[in-house]
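Hi team,

Below is the intake form for LD47230p from Drosophila melanogaster. Please confirm the fields before the structure is written into the shared record.

FORM ID: S-0412
PROTEIN: LD47230p
ORGANISM: Drosophila melanogaster
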Amino acid sequence: MNRAWLCLLICLALSCGPSQSASQDRATNQTAASPLLKQSQNTFIQWVLSLLPQRPGSSDSENATLATLSSSSMMPDAASTTSTTTPAPSSSTTTTRRATTPAPPTLNPPRNCSDCVCGIANIQKRIVGGQETEVHQYPWVAMLLYGGRFYCAASLLNDQFLLTASHCVYGFRKERISVRLLEHDRKMSHMQKIDRKVAEVITHPKYNARNYDNDIAIIKLDEPVEFNEVLHPVCMPTPGRSFKGENGIVTGWGALKVGGPTSDTLQEVQVPILSQDECRKSRYGNKITDNMLCGGYDEGGKDSCQGDSGGPLHIVASGTREHQIAGVVSWGEGCAKAGYPGVYARVNRYGTWIKNLTKQACLCQQETKKIK
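The structure came back. Fields below:
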């Protein structure tokens, strides 16, 4: 609102216009009709306000002035003790017509989070080499589809968010990405499979598409999933742990050999996790950053491969059944090639980032903490 309009409105509120002497001549009559006059003034001001353009850039002080004018016109004369049963016209037009910050959405009724445990495989068995998993053995492993076709994997962290690799979503249209849970054999139809659209994709702000540093991303589902006896998420990794010397379990529908077709069924393979120094002594050298984790054999033979990207590298916490997601399948030279271990995004480097972005979701407890 410009100053000219504001002055006019002030003038209207104060009934300016007639000369001072003329006002004095009518003082007695105005005092007697004061409540009616105030009512008329307010009605007229409300009508004028309704005609004014609603400028999105108008200042808070202008709106405060309008609200003051409207409310002051409704106040009874200080000298009058006469009450009225006619309610004053509402001033909601001026006091609520403009909101600079929308109120946060309220869940009504609030979403109830079920009592659940993360990281427990549905079937416990020993891995010997690469092989097909049991159906729904790792229920948190999700398939990513682009335009309806499988291309990457992800891991369910809670009822709304998944973890994947940035290179699986960077530059992709989220409208064309969908998530499928409880899939096992891509050629068979399973009644239990769950499909969701993607509401949001968050790549790490420091992701480097040239060297795959910080190759980690978060996917938010358009609708939460419900946990049950089959479906539950993976556990987050222990902060600060290197995982050196531990056995990692990689799962995915990726190719079984370099250049080969992707697998129809979910596969798993076990690889030893290397220290940073050991990995930098491989043929990768200084390409390995502190945000990366390596897993594999010097002679090769077992590895993740094309199509496994974004999927999990698990470790099972000592003395527990708890599967933690230590890494996200990122990159590598070939597949299972001697001197070139698989490279993964080191998840426990991003605990705070993940927690801050997923704090509104329903979480499952770790079994060890639940027992305590």
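SUMMARY LINE: The longest helix spans residues 34-51.

Thanks, M.
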